[in-house]
Design a protein that fits this description.
Residues 81-155 form the Ubiquitin-like domain. It comes from Meloidogyne floridensis. Helix content is 15%, strand content 23%. With 155 residues, it is an alpha+beta fold. The termini are far apart.
């Protein structure tokens, strides 16, 4: 269970790890709340960016057992890599604890948390190839210490 409570801005009820859904701007809601909202209004209730029902994605969180100290490393964490993210401005952001099974969408969310660039505005490039949402880091043979370029999507 979360030690911090998060609420759905549509209904003001707490979000649970089993009922968290996001849209392309990254805001999170209950599934029924965001479906009904988008069906009626076609935009995010928080930031007012355009949204469609196909934008909705479930967020999967892993619950930790009681007494978790925060420093126990499990088998999957031992296979993490560090990625450098290079913006067109030359700024480098480091993403730690990236797993080869992480999706490109998750990497975009990590970049948003560090840089503020929304996932729907990011294009990620590695070795001259654009990284496609729905694929995993492992699909591109990205290694520890690799650099991914992030460029803004043209509107």
């Amino acid at each position: 269970m979360f030690s911090t409570k998060f609420i759905c801005v549509v209904c003001s009820e707490p979000l649970t790890y089993k009922n968290m859904y996001s849209i392309s701007c990254g805001h999170v809601f209950h599934i029924d709340c965001i479906k009904n909202w988008i069906f009626q209004k076609n935009y995010c209730p928080k930031c007012w960016k355009n949204a469609v029902l196909n934008d909705i994605r479930q967020i999967f969180l892993e619950e930790v057992s009681p007494g978790y100290s925060g420093n126990v490393q499990n088998k999957s964490e031992s296979n993490t890599i560090k990625l450098n993210v290079l913006e067109i401005s030359g700024k480098i952001t480091v993403l730690n604890k990236v797993k080869s099974r992480d999706s490109i969408e998750l990497i975009k969310c990590m970049i948003q948390m560090k840089t503020g660039i929304p996932p729907d505005q990011q294009r990620l490039i590695y070795m001259g190839k654009q990284l496609i949402d729905g694929c995993l880091i492992a699909n591109y043979d990205i290694k520890d210490g690799s650099t991914i370029h992030v460029v803004m999507r043209l509107k």
